[in-house]
Amino acid sequence: MSASKRLDPSQNRLIRLGMAIRTLREAKGWSQADLGKAIRLSNVSISKFETGTAFPVREVAEALDQALEADGKLLEIWDQLNDDPSAKWVQKYFAHESKAIEIHHLANSMPALLQSDEYIRTILQVGMPHYGGNLDEKVAYRHRRRAILDRPDPPLFRAVIAQSALDYVVGNADIMRGQLLHMLDMLTRANVELRMIPFAVNGLKRDLGMTQIMTFRRDRKIVYRSGPTDAGIYITNPFEIAQYTALYDQIWRDALPAHESINVIDKALEEKYPCAPSGLTCP
Question: Which of 4, 31, 256, 260 is the most buried (most CB within 10 A)?
Answer without folding.
Answer: 256
